[in-house]
Amino acid sequence: MTAAEPTILATSAGFTVGEHGLFDLTPGPIHHLAAELSGAGETARFCMLHQATGDQEFRIGYTYAAFAKSRYRASHLQLFPMPNHRDMRKFLLEQDVIWVGGGSVANLVAVWRVHGLDEILYEAWQSGVVLGGVSAGSICWHTGGSTDSFGYDLRAFTDGLGWLPYSNGVHYDSEDQRRPKMHEFIADGTLPDGYATDDHAGLVYRGTTMVEAVADREGPQAYELKRAADGTVTETPLPTRVLSQAH
């Protein structure tokens, strides 16, 4: 199964965390939406990419543990210390959803380009494989966004894949620098107009058009950020659909 048209789900949302933390993760409503968008439903094939944190084994492990509690079929592609699939293109084009974890968006995109994975992912997107992710896995598809890839103080990342010709702000309500820095970078022209998501919110793109804002609980929102001629930035909350918790 494939999505009806090229689809990206760019989010500040992820797994549902139970009372035992990383030992008690399950796919979240945002993953269920990705599966629905792919057309594959409850048996969707999810491939996880964790290059933003260097393919750490414990992150790969808890991903499998989380998906083991569902009917989804989980797999992963790693690039450290070497690719774990001989034919990355064939493997990725067989997936229903490719989900990218958080971490350093600057390192993520650089490593992808070294391996030619950016070209393969573009082909997968155009072929109807749903691309999605959280944090770095959200910014990467855009022109850029604010990032801590370069240190504790947020800086502008402007070397994203750029398939979505907007800026992207993540963790908008949970980290003090995120909102003012996005406004600053858009106001001075470092980043183009774009969108931002609170933690637990996400954006659905069909082609390069943002068609819906969603959240996995009441409260979190998504926003449109636009620069006016005088350099001021207008932030407009978007109607945000709350996803069902039942699955």
Helix-strand topology string: EEEHEHEHEHHEHEEEHEEEEEE
Tally the beta strands.
16
Note the main sheet.
Answer: 8 strands, mixed
The overall pLDDT average reads 96
Q: Characterize the quaternary organization of these chains.
A: single chain
Helix coverage percent of residues?
25-40%
Low-confidence stretches: none
Largest sheet: spatial strand order? 5-4-6-7-1-12-13-16
Number of helices: 7
The dominant shape is: globular
Structural class: alpha/beta
Q: State the end-to-end distance.
A: 20 Å
Percent of sequence in beta strands: 25-35%
Please sum up the structure shown.
By secondary structure, the chain is an alpha/beta fold. It has helices at residues 29-38, 57-67, 88-93, 105-114, 117-127, 136-139, 178-187, and strands at residues 7-11, 16-17, 25-26, 45-49, 73-77, 97-100, 130-134, 142-147, 155-157, 164-169, 194-197, 201-206, 209-215, 222-227, 233-238, 240-242.
Summarize the helices and strands and which ones pair or pack:
Elements: E1 7-11, E2 16-17, E3 25-26, H1 29-38, E4 45-49, H2 57-67, E5 73-77, H3 88-93, E6 97-100, H4 105-114, H5 117-127, E7 130-134, H6 136-139, E8 142-147, E9 155-157, E10 164-169, H7 178-187, E11 194-197, E12 201-206, E13 209-215, E14 222-227, E15 233-238, E16 240-242
Parallel strand pairs: 1-7, 4-5, 4-6, 6-7, 8-10, 10-11, 13-16
Antiparallel strand pairs: 1-12, 2-3, 8-9, 11-14, 12-13, 14-15
